[in-house]
Write a structure and sequence with these properties.
The protein has 93 residues and is mainly alpha-helical. It contains five helices and no strands. It starts with a helix and ends in a 5-residue tail after the last helix.
Amino acid sequence: MLSFSQLFFIIAMVVVGGIGRLWGPLVGAIVLVAADEAMREIGEFRSLGLGIIIAAVMVLMPNGLIGLFESIWDRLRTRNPGMTAEMSGETPA
């Protein structure tokens, strides 16, 4: 049976990783569990720290971490159009 805090943590994993993306929940789970473990020593302020992380991602990265990675990848690809061809083994035109 899920408690409210567990349900909130699972939803936060999806939001942090990126809603509507295949790898989003997995990336969000890795990031939030790692942050939760890193903040284990601060005790009762751990929930505050996780809340700040979740709020920051929602405000600064509305598409989640995967959305941020996709936008960086698109910028790199448009900056260097031959990079995609090099990675696929083709020669750029």
